[in-house]
Structures are given as structure tokens and as C-alpha cells.
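Task card 7
Instruction: Convert sequence to C-alpha cells.
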Amino acid sequence: MNLINEDTILDDLRDLIQRFDESLVRRVDPAGLTLKSKIPFKVLSLKEVLFHRITILAQEAFDLYLQNKRMPSYILMRSTVETCALCFSFRKKCSIFLEDFNVANFDSFLMKGLSGGRIEKAKYQSVNVLTCIDHVDREFEGFRKMYDVLCEYAHPNHLGTLDSLGKFDNEKIWLDLGTELKMPPPAFGLAPFCMSLIIFEEQYNLIGDILRDINKNFDEKII
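Output:
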């Protein structure tokens, strides 16, 4: 990505984030869902929680980028990529459920998504986000590599420390520090950021379509 395309991509991102924000729901109401199972309500809850998460992260990442605070912006962009990946795996699980009707397996995934964690006392172990990233990469080649670059900014490695925050002055033999001194390449952040939002929107909409079939199947006692 070069500077000529940066403004266009920023315009696209601005439109995407605005559309996300305008589409947020403030309450998940089970009215209209079947009373024969909690599965549809859990699907709807996870779907909307992920939507809120990615919208908040995307807005903050975008604002920081416009302020030329690229290192913290890229850290938040990494989180949007992870949220996108979980949503992608979520959609796949929904599709599989319509085929095998394995309530126990599907409910386990939903509970991991809604209540999972990696801390010792977590009731459910959360879904492995790296596995989700790799699932996306199989369909969208290069997704994992872009994610790995963003991870370098999230970790205190070279890209996340000296390369983002410092500039050596060889003549005066000192190190200047500050977020304004170094501008990481736009492609490192904007490419995976934009891609993750586009993929998320597609998967989010597909989950909504699949949810109607899941709900119908429970109502008609197909499951």
C-alpha cells in the first residue's frame, strides 16, 4: 500500500465504521425466538457482543491512526483482526450445526465464546484465537502474515518499541523519543484492519441468515 491509496482506504474505513456504529443494537431481546431452546438466544447474544466489540475497537484504532499514534492504533487493529477471526469461526460453527444438529458441541462453542477465558478460574476455556486466525487464512491467504506483523507492535519487540518510538541522531549521538518521530508503514495496519472489517461484516450477516434457520428448526422440532 502506498501513500496514494491511503486516503481512499481511510475513506472506506470511515464509511465502514460509521455503518457499524449506526447498526448497533442496544438490547438482545429473545422475543421472536423459539422457547424450545436457549441456543438461538445464545447465538444472537454472541453475534451482537462481537459486533459491539469490533465497532468500539475499530473506532478507537481509527481515531488513533488519524492522530498519528500508529503504534497504539496498530495494537487495537490487532484486536479487531482477532475479533474478526472469532466471528469467522463462529459462522463456520453455525453452518456445521445446521448440518449435524450436534447441540452439545455447538452449545460448548457458544459458551466458550460468551463466558470463556484463559484464567485459572474460568468456567469455560476460551476459543484459541490463533486457530481462528489460521481458519481465516485458509480462505484469505496472507491473513495470518498480516496478523503476525500487528503482533510485533502489540509486543515489546523492535517494531513495538524502538522502531515506533525512537530515532537515533548519529551526528549528536543521542536517541530522540516520541510517537511523532516514526511513522510505521500504513500497509502494516490499514491492510489487515480494512480486510478484517469487511470479512467481519460478511460473516456477521451470514450468521443472521443462519440463525433464522436454526430457530426455525428448533420450532419445527427438526433438531
